[in-house]
Write a structure and sequence with these properties.
Number of strands: 5
Strand content: 5-15%
Number of helices: 5
Shape: globular
Helix content: 25-40%
Length: about 200
Amino acid sequence: RTLGPGQKLNDEAVNLWCSMINAREEQRFPEDVYFRTVCLSTFFWSTLMQVGNADAGYNFEALSPWQSPRKGDSHRKVSHLKGDILSYSSLMFPINIIEEDHWVLVVAHLWKKEIRYVDSCGAPGDKYLNVILRYIQDEHGRNKLAFVESDWSLIPCDPSIVPQKVNHFDCGVYLCLFVYSIVRDCTLKFTPQQVT
């Protein structure tokens, strides 16, 4: 139903796409997560920010299903990730902005210490960049790793290099194409005609 003309992609469709990207990354780098990009569930953001709860706001502790256990910490659930989340080359965070009914992407390149916001409407995304930076800082703290905030670059969306949608319903398809292009190290070059 969400793949019909004029329909927006839902979480289920985006998560399926992300799981296919993750499976491809596992095939490319079967033994070494350090070279992999992982695309997290669309529910990661809503869990982190407690979207829909009366006391909505940042809640790092709510993420235990996505976190690998620390040494001697056997009560934590282990996610589908292999190894610690900070071991990956890059993390992709697909975000459904509920109040705008709009999909965006935040990409954290852990080796480069760079967090990039990608949006088919061209908004800069400062809020999302800062929350993901805080999350990465908290993951470093949880793992007792040094973190220097000034080493990190936050890169807002640049509409001159990020393809922009021309309707109100293709943002999920753009998100999937952003994920695909970034994981393949391709430039974000596609037109609205190619999307629809």
